[in-house]
Amino acid sequence: MKKMSWKVISLIAIVVVALGAYSIAFADTIVKPTATLSGVVAADGLVKVGASVSEGQVLVQVKTVAGLMPAARANGTGKVTEVYVQAGQNLTSGQAVAAISVGR
After folding, report:
1. pLDDT (tens digit, 9 = 90+) per residue, 72-84?
2. Are 30 and 82 in contact (CB under 8 A)?
3. What pLDDT shows up at residue 54?
4. Single pTM value for the model
5. First to last CA, the chain
6. Going by C-beta distance under 8 Å and a sequence separation of 6 or more, which residues neighbour residue 46?
7. Are 4 and 49 in contact (CB under 8 A)?
8. DSSP character string of the chain
9. Measured between alpha carbons, how far is 23 from 12 in angstroms, rounded to an integer?
């Protein structure tokens, strides 16, 4: 078996470290916005899986005495991968409502 020089081994190590750092830097992050209001989830204004959302966009509305009110907003720009609530469900403040895949 032929011996590898330290230069080749060093080059391989640098490439492996660079690829690892690149994949970490550009990986998607999952964020889970939570409700700020309690109430019954309204069918109108309930985000769907696969929807593209931008930061601040309303994800869930609840029925209140004053009418429909936003209960949760997107805390990042990305794509909705899961929705944890459904229309007619009681939502409590602090409850996670969806998962959003946010790219860097």
Report:
1. 999 989 999 999 9
2. no
3. 93
4. 0.71
5. 44
6. 59, 60, 61, 83, 85, 86, 87
7. no
8. -PPPPHHHHHHHHHHHHHHHHHHHHT--EEE--B-SS-EEEPSTT---TT-EE-TT-EEEEEEETTEEEEEEE-SSSEEEEEE---TT-EE-TT-B-EEEEE--
9. 17
Tokens 């330290």 map to which residue? 6
User: Where do the domains of the chain lie, and which CATH numbers do they carry?
Assistant: 29-102 (2.40.50.100)
How far is Cα 23 from Cα 99, in angstroms, rounded to an integer? 21
Show the tokens assigned to 73: 């907003």
Instruction: Count how many residues are written for the chain.
Output: 104
